[in-house]
Write a structure and sequence with these properties.
single chain
Length: 175
């Protein structure tokens, strides 16, 4: 666990809660050079449509987009710099990618958490809160929920601010 808090902001919420829009609003009026790190992979037509919709809503001419499904910390380190804002959308898709690739999840989570206090950029990390529903029926889904919950705790502890979004409304939980 890092010894000091970062400038990072964690934005949590359910599906279609407005968390991405809110996260973008935290950056849009800062005057900083905007970078968008997309972790999603287009596994099927529906996911391709979602990615296209996010791009259209975001307006790629305002953002430099980086697609990074696995090596999130390395990508963040590579684009980190003064005068920049970096939005990561989303951590739960990243967790899915790590699980499917059988990566060392604990090591990946630790690396990201340790990077946050060192970052020079304003970082805004978006993630789906998946721990509020019923217990999933299968082992993989339960492991996913548990990994996401652990990651959220680690990132929240290392972040300067944490927001929970429901029905498009932000609730500031920290900072």
């Amino acid at each position: 666990m890092p010894s000091s808090l970062s400038r990072a902001v964690l934005v949590l919420g359910g599906a279609r809660s407005g968390k991405s829009r809110f996260a973008e609003s935290l950056i849009s009026d800062t005057g900083l050079d905007r970078h968008y790190v997309a972790t999603g992979q287009a596994w099927d037509e529906e996911m391709r449509d979602r990615i296209a919709q996010h791009r259209a809503e975001r307006g790629d001419f305002l953002w430099t987009t980086h697609e990074e499904p696995f090596d999130l910390t390395a990508r963040l380190a590579a684009i980190d710099g003064e005068g920049r804002a970096v939005l990561v959308d989303c951590l739960t898709l990243w967790v899915t990618n790590l699980m499917m690739a059988e990566r060392n999840i604990a090591a990946e989570f630790s690396a990201l958490t340790e990077f946050l206090p060192q970052a020079k950029s304003r970082l805004v990390l978006v993630s789906n809160e998946v721990g509020l529903g019923i217990v999933p029926e299968n082992r993989m889904a339960r492991e996913f929920r548990d990994h996401a919950g652990r990651l959220h705790q680690m990132i929240a502890a290392a972040s300067a601010e944490v927001y929970f979004i429901a029905a498009g409304l932000p609730l500031k939980m920290k900072g």
